[in-house]
Amino acid sequence: MSIIVRLFDLLLVGGLLWLCWQVVSARELFRSIVLFIVFGLLMAICWARLQAPDLALAEAAIGAGITGALFLSTLGAIRQRDKELSNE
Amino acid sequence: MTTAQLFAIAGAGIVAIGFYAQLARHNLIRKILGLNLMGSGVFLILVSLAGRGETPDSVPQAMVLTGLVVSVSATALALALVRRLHRESGRLDWVMPTPPPPELMSEDEESDDDSH
Amino acid sequence: MNEPAATNLDRSARFLAGIGAAFLGLGLVWAILALPQVEVGLGETVRRNLGVSGVSNPVTAVLLNFRGYDTMLEVGVLVLALIGSQALRGTGETLPEVDRDIVLDSVVRVLTPPLIIVAAYMLWIGGTEPGGAFQAGAILAAGAVILLLAGLRPPRLWHWMIERLAVIAGFLVFALAALACIPLTDHLLGYPQSSAKYWILAVEGVSALSIALILTLLFAGHPLGRGMERDQDEGDR
Fold first, then answer.
1. ipTM above 0.95, yes or no
2. Is residue B53 predicted with pLDDT exceeding 80?
3. What is the pLDDT of residues C152-203, one digit of tens each?
4. Which burial class, exposed, middle or buried, applies to C91 when counting CB atoms under 10 A from its CB (0-12, 13-18, 19+)?
5. Is the dihedral of CA B44, B49, B50, B54 positive or negative?
């Protein structure tokens, strides 16, 4: 039983670090942002694993949800502006 | 290695990767993403070290909950700054401002002298 | 949005950055492994004093009672961030027009009431189980962001004065509660023990609404209340 739990932990930690590296190194910004949202969801699982359910709830709603929406809307506004600039 | 240590070391790795993004990436949005990653790493270290005892310590958990909300507001402010920068200058990165070429400089100085 | 190809200078800078980041990471790992493996902290103190806090969820007890000070100032930080981000918005920048879609519209309409109920439940349950003002506020804000994305806008009655009052209401009520505690118990934010639960619930409820509104406005990037544009136009004339 403890081996399975340990395996799950290792998988979680490995996924977290891999996603983190992908967020930093992905060539396209959109991909980075989407992976950052996935990173937030994995963090929420981490909090649950570390017996911090309060944090898991907050991270899922704030870290993954609202922060991700903020980044995506900024990217959208910037692309819109770029399009306007190239049309002028 | 205990579970707490495993997650804390992962947190250290995340902080390091986020720090690398700060140093090596030009794009400001990516820097802000990196800043968020660094924050998550610090939170992970704090909470996993709080879980060393039999029942987890609730003070660091409450601190991190506060930190989560503060970091989202800081992110929003930073993104507003980036948006404004992009509106004003049309760029998304920070580069060392290059000084204007010398001929231009001297002309400017001359015109300044004339006006005096 | 692809970045330009790396130059040689870039590559060596990245290499140095990698070394710096590796040192930081290894230093942190060393610090973590050097820490003693025993529980040191305030967990035991919190557990011992949980009875006087008025709630039985230790995290809520710390946030709203033992360290209520931090939480109060945090709501203040949110207000400051909102002021900053609204000050930075360019003139004439408004929410993008959204093509209203009947399917999206009806899904959002069905989804919103349960979200509000979930948020209220989250707020109430925060006293005994995981949950509380921040989670409730975040869920409400997520619901409001969905509404904005679907192209729904606040009702006509939503005047900008109401909006600004609601933004500072959380901090205001928190600060008033803190001051009101001084004549009662001689301590700033020291709730009377017998009624601590109701104090916490009142402060949490108003804070949750303020947090939700602030997060929504941070997403929208500019005020949503009516009447603001007209006032500005008159000021310009």
1. no
2. no
3. 888 878 888 899 999 999 999 999 998 888 888 888 778 888 888 888 889 9
4. exposed
5. positive
Query: Do residues C66 and C51 lie in contact, with contact meaning Cβ atoms separated by under 8 Å?
Result: no
- Does residue A47 contact residue C121 with C-beta atoms inside 8 Å? no
Q: Tell me the two tokens of residue C29.
A: 């790992």
Task: Give every CB contact of residue B88 below 8 A, 6+ residues apart in sequence.
Answer: none
Question: How many CB atoms lie under 10 A from the CB of residue C47?
Answer: 14
Provide residues of B within 8 Å CB-CB of chain A: 3-4, 6-7, 10, 13-14, 17-18, 20-21, 25, 27, 29-30, 32-34, 36-37, 40, 43-44, 47-48, 51, 55-56, 61, 64-65, 68-69, 71-72, 75-76, 79, 82-83, 86-87, 90, 92
Residues 6 or more apart whose Cβ sits within 8 Å of residue B107: none
Please check whether residue C150 is in contact with residue C99, taking contact to mean a CB–CB distance below 8 angstroms: no
Secondary structure of A48-61 in the HEC alphabet? HHCCCHHHHHHHHH
CB C146 within 8 A of CB C98: no
Is the distance from CB of C138 to CB of A61 less than 8 angstroms? yes
CA distance to A2, B42, B56, B57, C125, per residue, from B60 (Å): 26, 11, 9, 7, 21
**Which residue, among C21, C26, A23, A18, has the nearest Cα to B20 in the 3D structure?**
C21
How much of chain A, in percent, has pLDDT values that exceed 90?
A: 64
Strand segments, DSSP code E, in C162-223 are none
The predicted pLDDT at position C1 comes to 44
Residues of B in contact with A40 (CB under 8 A): 40
C192: phi then psi, degrees, rounded to nearest 5? -60, 135
DSSP state of C202: H
Nearest neighbour of B51 by CB, restricted to A23, A51, A66: A51
Burial class for A14, CB neighbours closer than 10 Å (0-12, 13-18, 19+): exposed
